[in-house]
């Protein structure tokens, strides 16, 4: 999809604040409301804008411990990976799951829980019980000086 400067501005502004009215968005990018709305709808219909979400404050919800977990699998088969991915997708504490290369691990999980007891429970009662998991290495987040959700619009 070819994006002109207005499309790029729309994407940048909506990533920062997806609750803007069409009028506010149009004013910010220097278009009249009708063409602005047509562009937003085209970006949505193309799938470039996938969804609108609220970003929540984790600590206010009692979620105080974030960790990254590297997972090693015993076999690299589509069935084994599909089974693992199905199980981790069902865990609300797992925010992200990435199949990775360049490490001893096969997967990298980003998890958030209330405390170390909740982490231990998630790890020992759920993650390590998934068939095929042979290794686990955890790293705990002490600080997140950069935490973006917006993608760079080039």
Automatic annotation (TrEMBL):
Keyword Transcription: yes
Pfam families: AsnC_trans_reg, HTH_24
Top-rank taxon: Bacteria
GO terms, molecular function: sequence-specific DNA binding
A GO cellular-component term linked to this record: cytosol
Any one of the GO BP annotations: regulation of DNA-templated transcription
Chain ranges of the HTH asnC-type domain: 3-64
UniProtKB keywords: DNA-binding, Transcription, Transcription regulation
Keyword hit for DNA-binding: yes
Official protein name in the record: Lrp/AsnC family transcriptional regulator
Species of the source: Spongiibacter nanhainus
Lineage: Bacteria, Pseudomonadati, Pseudomonadota, Gammaproteobacteria, Cellvibrionales
């Amino acid at each position: 999809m070819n994006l002109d400067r207005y499309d790029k501005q729309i994407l940048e502004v909506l990533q920062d604040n997806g609750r803007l009215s069409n009028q506010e968005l149009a004013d910010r990018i220097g278009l009249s409301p009708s063409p602005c709305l047509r562009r937003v709808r085209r970006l949505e219909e193309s799938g470039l804008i996938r969804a609108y979400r609220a970003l929540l404050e984790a600590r206010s919800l009692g979620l105080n411990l974030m960790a990254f977990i590297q997972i090693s699998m015993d076999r690299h088969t589509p069935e084994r990976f599909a089974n693992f991915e199905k199980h981790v997708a069902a865990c609300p504490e797992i925010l992200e799951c990435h199949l990775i290369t360049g490490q001893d691990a096969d997967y990298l999980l980003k998890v958030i829980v209330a405390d170390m007891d909740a982490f231990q429970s998630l790890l020992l009662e759920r993650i390590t019980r998934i068939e095929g998991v042979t290794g686990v290495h955890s790293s705990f987040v002490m600080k997140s000086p950069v935490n973006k959700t917006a993608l760079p619009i080039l």
